[in-house]
DNA sequence: AATATTTGACCCAG
DNA sequence: CTGGGTCAAATATT
């Protein structure tokens, strides 16, 4: 029963998310076109409702969500991710906890997860219009049952140097080969992953513009990669240029920001970093042909809201993907799990966030 | 030489 | 036992 509820909650949330995404798109259209203030207001309200619904849903679940406060500085206190870490009253777990048996796997399991759906047009590919701001290193590829294309696995280039455990996997869509599902896991704790954010004390934390900042730099680099990849693809027809070219250096924008989530409760000597980076980076805005909603991410700014900024993310089942992907317009929906208090929303009706989140197991 | 990718082997949860 | 995810030796790039 526990699981069942989770599942249902997952799909429920998916629906809400979808609705919210659609509302956002609608808003965009209204913006571009001539819109009345009343119209904007309506859309805003609709979005607000979705947001609240999502939050309520999450709170209805007696899980972690504890208090955002204390976690902030905790290196290992780790606000147990919403995952059912403790959910399983198995005694073994307890026992094993003591022994630091490479709980690495355990650690990974707890990492937040969310999926993005990105459409890549040959043009954008050539232009190198994308990149989520991080550098990834491919560490594996696997043919997935039933899937037409292989899945590629990437991990942060700085895993070892900075103990950054973020990873992502890229799966080309069967139906629409121009779409890639990118599943991210874990938050980047590395620092220069995203060149944009210059050392200067985050000056632009105030709002929307940081968007542009990131975009530039990497693009060029990126394009090179892409070209070389394409070349490879051309000569290595073995697999039919499918995956590799693209999968290889791709990263996209939409990803939103970092989540906080502290997953390294165990050894990680640098656990300290966690806090800072929480949202250190925003992926590039990504001006996709159909993605006008580039600038939102208002919520991304942690400080903007007092909450410690703890977010955790993950998407539950695969169902979600489908639902989300439904809307082509290149909208991505990073999923976030906002952990701040509900009040926040109430106080600030304009508050909006692109993401949504929920948990799963 | 240093770093990144390719790939089959290996691990483990279901 | 099977499939998904990761490791790591062999290669390929830079």
Search tags:
single chain, about 350 residues, alpha+beta, N-terminal domain of TfIIb, 5-stranded antiparallel sheet, two-stranded antiparallel ribbon, 12 helices, about 10% strand, globular, disordered C terminus, DNA-binding, WRKY_dom, transcription regulation, Putative WRKY transcription factor 53, DNA-binding transcription factor activity
The first-level CATH class name of the domain at 113-185: Mainly Beta
- Helix-strand topology string: HHHHHEHEEHEEHHHEHEH
**Adjacency order of strands in the biggest sheet:** 1-5-4-3-2
Q: How many H/I helical runs?
A: 12
Beta strands, count: 7
| Global outline | globular
CATH homologous superfamily name of the domain at 113-185? WRKY domain
End-to-end distance: 13 Å
Mean pLDDT: 53
> Biggest sheet, in brief?
5 strands, antiparallel
Instruction: State Rg.
Output: 20 Å
**Poorly predicted sequence stretches spanning 5 or more consecutive residues:** 61-102, 193-361
Structural class: alpha+beta
CATH-assigned fold name of the domain at 113-185? N-terminal domain of TfIIb
Biased composition (Basic and acidic residues): 90-99
GO molecular function: DNA-binding transcription factor activity; transcription cis-regulatory region binding
GO cellular component, one term: nucleus
Region (Disordered): 66-99
């Amino acid at each position: 029963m526990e699981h069942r509820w989770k599942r249902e909650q997952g799909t429920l949330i998916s629906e809400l998310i979808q609705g919210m995404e659609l509302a956002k798109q609608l808003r965009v259209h209204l913006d571009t076109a001539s819109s009345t203030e009343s119209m904007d207001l309506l859309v805003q309200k609709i979005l607000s409702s979705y947001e609240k619904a999502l939050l309520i849903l999450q709170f209805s679940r007696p899980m972690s969500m504890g208090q955002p406060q204390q976690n902030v500085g905790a290196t290992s206190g780790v606000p147990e991710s919403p995952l059912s870490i403790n959910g399983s009253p198995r005694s073994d777990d307890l026992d094993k906890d003591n022994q630091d048996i490479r709980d690495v796997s355990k650690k990974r399991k707890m990492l937040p997860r969310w999926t993005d759906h990105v459409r890549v047009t040959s043009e954008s590919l050539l232009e190198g219009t994308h990149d989520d701001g991080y550098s990834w290193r491919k560490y594996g590829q696997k043919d997935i049952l039933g899937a037409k294309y292989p899945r590629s696995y990437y991990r942060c280039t700085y895993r070892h140097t900075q103990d950054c455990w973020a990873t992502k996997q890229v799966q080309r869509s069967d139906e629409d080969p121009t779409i890639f599902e990118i599943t991210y896991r874990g938050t980047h704790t590395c620092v220069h992953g995203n060149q944009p954010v210059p050392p200067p004390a985050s000056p632009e934390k105030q709002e929307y513009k940081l968007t542009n900042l990131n975009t530039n730099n990497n693009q060029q680099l990126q394009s090179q990669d892409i070209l070389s990849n394409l070349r490879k693809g051309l000569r290595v027809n073995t697999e039919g240029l499918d995956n590799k070219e693209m999968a290889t250096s791709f990263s996209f924008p939409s990803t939103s920001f970092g989540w906080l989530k502290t997953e390294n409760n165990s050894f990680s000597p640098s656990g300290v970093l966690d806090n800072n980076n929480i949202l250190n980076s925003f992926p590039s805005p990504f001006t996709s042909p159909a993605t006008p909603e580039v600038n939102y991410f208002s919520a991304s700014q942690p400080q903007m809201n007092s909450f410690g900024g703890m977010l955790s993310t993950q998407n539950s089942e695969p169902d979600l993907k489908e639902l989300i992907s439904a809307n082509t317009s290149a909208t991505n929906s990073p999923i976030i799990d906002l952990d701040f208090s509900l009040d926040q929303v109430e106080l600030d009706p304009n508050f909006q966030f692109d993401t949504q989140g929920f948990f799963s197991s």
